[in-house]
Amino acid sequence: xxxxxxxxxxxxxxxxxxxxxxxxxxxxxxxxxxxxxxxxxxxxxxxxxxxxxxxxxxxxxxxxxxxxxxxxxxxxxxxxxxxxxxxxxxxxxxxxxxxxxxxxxx
Length: 106
Prior knowledge:
Blueprint (H helix, E strand, L loop, with lengths): L1 H24 L3 H26 L3 H31 L18
Helix pairs in contact: 1-2, 2-3
């Protein structure tokens, strides 16, 4: 079990690191938001699963399932709201952005 826990914890940490790298390196708020929402939520889920395998008990399992559900439900909503707020405040887009689906002009 500790081997599975270690692999899940390392994989989750790798996804969180990629998420942080995307936050620093990507050119605009929309791409940064996408990186943090997707890779961050997956990394958090993997780390929490690693905790379940490292500390096998029903209490830990129930708490982790609740935390994973919370993260996977709130992350898409939060990233959508951040993107919508950025669009309403006319945040600058990357110059290679081709389609803006939130504008009425197409």
